[in-house]
Every structure is written in structure tokens, then in C-alpha cells.
Automatic annotation (TrEMBL):
Pfam family, any one: NDNF
Record keywords: Glycoprotein, Repeat, Secreted, Signal
Source organism of the structure: Caerostris extrusa
UniProt protein name: Protein NDNF
Matching SUPFAM superfamilies: Fibronectin type III
Record-annotated Fibronectin type-III domain positions: 58-153, 259-361
Domain of life of the source: Eukaryota
Biological role stated in the UniProt entry: Secretory protein that plays a role in various cellular processes. Acts as a chemorepellent acting on gonadotropin-releasing hormone (GnRH) expressing neurons regulating their migration to the hypothalamus. Also promotes neuron migration, growth and survival as well as neurite outgrowth and is involved in the development of the olfactory system. May also act through the regulation of growth factors activity and downstream signaling. Also regulates extracellular matrix assembly and cell adhesiveness.
GO cellular component, one term: extracellular region
Region called Disordered, residue ranges: 1-25
Main localization category: secreted
Keyword Secreted belongs to the record: yes
InterPro entries, alphabetized: FN3_dom (IPR003961), FN3_sf (IPR036116), Ig-like_fold (IPR013783), NDNF (IPR019326), NDNF_C (IPR045805), NDNF_Fn(III)_1 (IPR055271)
Origin organism lineage: Eukaryota, Metazoa, Ecdysozoa, Arthropoda, Chelicerata
Amino acid sequence: MRPLPTPSATYHGRERSSYNIPGAPPGTYSLEMRLSSDGFAKVLVTTRSPDELPFHPPLPPQRSLQINRVKRNKILVSWQPSLTTKPHQYCVAMNNRGNYNSMCSAESDQWSGKHGTTITCVGHKTWHQFKGLQRGKTYHFDAFVLDTATNASSTYIGVSATLRGAGGTPHQRFKDDDIVTYKLDESNRHAVNTKYHVGKTKNAILVFVQSCTGPGPVNLHITTGGSSKQDIMSTTVLDIKTLRLPPTNASSWLCLFTCPQDKSIRVFESLNTCHSITIGWKTSADERVKYCIYKKDKEQNLSEPQDFCESYSTGVLVLCRRYHRFSNRRFSDLIMQKIKGLQPDTKYLLEVQVTKVKGEMLPYEQVWARTAKTCSKKVKTKKNKSVF
């Protein structure tokens, strides 16, 4: 019995891999593949030079699918065009199990009739509308760019959506100066529609949007009169996806101010003592704002993200004050503040909130800091008393 040849290469998983034989002489080559279970594999063999890489169509920098419209039993998705200059076309897949990481995987499920997978090639279009969908059911959408000469393909990052049941959530309306909180989750397909009626002609409609719980792309669209949409803002939130939209009129919009882009709090550990912590943060562009510092000395549940929409802090108020441009605690656009009266070797959760008169409190990012374990003999502090 002839022994099995030693494999030239071994690959595991579903990732795309390549194998190169440099300087291969002319002749007939045998390609043998073995798999430990049933499956499908797509192979591209070429004698083209590696200088012609990539053999697979390159994807654009923004490689995620976007859900543009959901209406009744239809969902419209779109994607950015490929950067390839070679003949190509786009194909889309839909199934009810999960997103695919290759067109080969999608074709495998379609051939075997699994998971209701369908594949449709749409030519050079960079959008496709899926029709005949069922309410209350979750669908997963993928897009592929296919080299028509070699059938080599690349996969975009897919998206998922759930059509709401027949009842649905009615469109909500909000009035001037109302603060409305929206929670975006699986139950509403991470999207909420709301209406704002303008009774009289206004010079401007001002919308203040605040993300409450951290990173994750959320697009806000304002539609007037019909199907045309104007994308006015993009913000980031966590997976819980909470938005707060307080609409304002011309008489009250000045109560809202702009926080700096960098809302982090810096701890100057070299200045910390056993009874004090020194922190710093970037200033707001508005000189009339007031900064309030809060502290906690108990452990927080870190599994819950910080809610930036909370207008109050559950910590102990340390101080509230303004820092004008000539303050000795302000250095250009940086404010430095020492927090005194703390316990040695203790971990504190510190929070800075900024506000204007009759305005909302907007928090900076929270930060943990620990006081020094041992006290220097040169440092004298008064017990149970804070001095600022």
C-alpha cells in the first residue's frame, strides 16, 4: 500500500489562505484535499505573478453593510463599492441563522438547503431590497464582491435585522423643550422613529443629541415632507444603545453647550498623596460653565456602562466652581484640581460634571484613582476636613 504523501500545507477554520510554489517547473500537478467532516471548499489556482496581488477583489475602508430602510415586509441594504478595477459583480445572501464569512459558506448552505439561505447576484448595484420577509423574524444579510474572471470573492461585514410584529411601536411625538429617552435594542431593531410638529415658521430647529452609554455607531436622520432624508449627526453609544433627544427653541438653546471632544479625566499619580488626588480635564469652550466634582469610595459594578445622560451623580459632592481663564488652576485648555481629605490607600471613583445656569448636567468620563499607601512626614492634613 502506497503511503500517503506528506501534506504541503494544512489549514484550519474558515479563513481564506494561500499557498505559493515559487519557480515551479512546467508539468502536471495534482492537488489533493482531505477534510475531517463533510464540507465544501473553493479553490483558485493561478500562474499569475504575485505582483498581480490581490487575487481577491479589495474591499473599501468602510466594509460594513448598512440598513437604509425597513418598511412592512421589505428591507433595503447598501454597501460601499469595491476598490477593484477588474471585471466584477456583487452578490447578496440572506439566511435565518447568522452572518457568513465567505461566499463559499453561503453557497454551501444554499446547495444543502440549510437555514433558508438565498444568494442573488445584482451586477454592479451597491444596494438591494429584500422582499417578502416575515414580521417577528430575524434575518441576516451579507454581500460579496466577485471577480467575474476567476470567481474569487471577498466578503463585506454583514448585518442583521428583525421585523417587528404586526402591533409594532407607534411613532412618538415630542414637544418643544421636552427631554425624551430612547432605548435601542433588539426589540426595535436598534432604530426608533419619532415626529416633531412645527406649528409656526421657525428660523431654525435646534436638536441636541447626547449618547448615553458609550461607543457604537448610531445614525440620526431627519426627514421632511417625504422620503428624502438628511443625515445631520452621527454619534456613538454602547450595545444598550440609548439616545436622548431634547428639542429646543431659539429662546432656550443657549442652555446647551459643547463639551470638549476629549472628555477623559487624567490622574496625575506623581502628585497624589495619602490624603489627596490631583486630576485634570479639558475645558469647555464656554467660559460661563461650572464644574462639579463627585467622589465614591465603594466599588462600582463595572459590567454596567456609564450613563452619560444621568443629570445627577450618586457620589458625594466634593466641590462646584467656575474656572475662568486667569485661574491659577487652569493651564491653557487644561484644568487641574487637587481633591483633599481622602483616606490613605483607598480607591475612589471620580466624576466631573459641567453645567450652565438653567442647563443640563453633562458628565465627563469617570476615572478610578487610589491615594498613596504611606504618608510623607512633610505632608500635614487636617482629619475629616477638605480644603480646596
